TrEMBL record, chain A:
It comes from Riccia fluitans. Gene3D superfamilies: 1.20.58.2050. The keyword Repeat does not apply. It comes from the Eukaryota. This is GINS subunit domain-containing protein. Residues 71-168 form the GINS subunit domain. Residues 6-58 form the DNA replication complex GINS protein PSF3 N-terminal domain. One of its GO terms (cellular component) is nucleus. Keywords: DNA replication, Nucleus.
TrEMBL record, chain B:
Belongs to the GINS2/PSF2 family. Residues 144-241 form the GINS subunit domain. Signal peptide: none annotated. GO terms for cellular component: nuclear chromosome. It comes from the Eukaryota. This is DNA replication complex GINS protein PSF2. It is found in: Nucleus. Its main location: nucleus.
Amino acid sequence: MANNYYDLDDILMEEEYVSVHFRFEAKGLGVLDPGSEHDDIEAGAVVDIPLWLAHDLCLRKFITIKLPYFYNERIRKEIQADASCVDLGRWCPYFYEMGLRLAPISPDQTLGSFLLYCLQRRYKEMLCKSLTVALTTAPKFLTLLTKEEIQLFEAARDSMKAYNKWWFQGARLERAPVLGRKRRLNALLSSFELT
Amino acid sequence: MFIHSALGSTEIALLDKSTSRDRLWNRTPLSSLSGITEQRAELCTWDRLLILGRTAELIVQPARNSMAGRASTELESSLFSGAEVEFLAEDDMVVIVPSLRMDTLHLICGDFGPFMPQVPTSVPLWLGIAMKKRGKCRLRAPEWMSVENLTQVLELERESPQEFQPLPFHYVEVSRLLLDNARDDLIDVYMVQTLIEDIRNVRFHKVQSGLQNLSGKTHAVKLKNLAAMEVSLIRPFFVRALEKFYLHDDEELVQPSQTETDTPLASVDRLSRRVLRPR
């Protein structure tokens, strides 16, 4: 399932908690539930566990997944109203990745299409903003974006910045960094010789 | 790199440039493409890149290689910086009217000359500019850079919101270089400059509004007659966005019975864009 074993974002995303519903009694797993008084988890208990654990347990049919609150009906309505103003970054910086991971194992069939819809709506707004935004100041809506969207936004802004730099550049001669270093090395040496 | 001792220091610089240029082209063999597309994971990305750009060489460059040993941390995201696209544009041919007598230049990229005073000859732009800077020739503006032609192109660009007018692939860079280096050889400089700026703005707005109609079902976008600078400007964002859409548009994830649909206007637009016509 994991796309890239060493991907930091992937690891961080898997640390996010999801609440799950245990279908069977689990002996010795009481450590997972901070509120538990016994060593065991009873059948039917609802516990918050990290996504990486939930994913495997769910594949073995030990648990059923309850979707996190940011995929619920109310949020979906908000996104349908005006997707680009919704503060996804605050709820979960890995909104899309987590959704993608949860979609095949959760009982909710509409999650996948909801994510696609959300991405489409927000993408349009981002395209406009990222290419026209002032290049120096950090824009206010950057806080509304998820991690993935910020990367996308920065890619667009950087290419626009590079283009503007080329267009408005002054001197056309560039000094190779090697030259500067060599000279400094010489200066260091000569001062050493003097002393 | 080699130095031809018979030529003066001017020509050393020129030869130097042509060798490094040839190396850049050789570094991106087309044969490597087939090897890469065999890997399924990268298939979609490469497909999309190829359709987005017009010259394969410009696109099939796996890692960024900085040309002059330049530190490239800030521009990591775009494959080519403006200066590099400009470098490629300098290979376009331009007609010069030399004012000196010189034998044929044998360069790696071809033979140019012989140069006779007042006899027009065609050379690469970088050679023309280098000679112009030393006062050895006058540059002649290409035909598309006339005021009549540019006015016509601008009108057509404004009239058709979906199509791009055929302009040279490197029109932004070539016009920029000519306006910078050979202002006194051009006719109606200010008019030409304004017109090109207008065309650039109109086209870029068109690109932007066209890309807004992207949806999950889009696997490729046909953008005909797009210029090099425009491609390199939108590539980092656009490739990433398409990758995201590809991830989310999995058959298993998205059920066919979608309740949410796009606004009718956008979807009509999208359909007309998705048709891939043969050239």
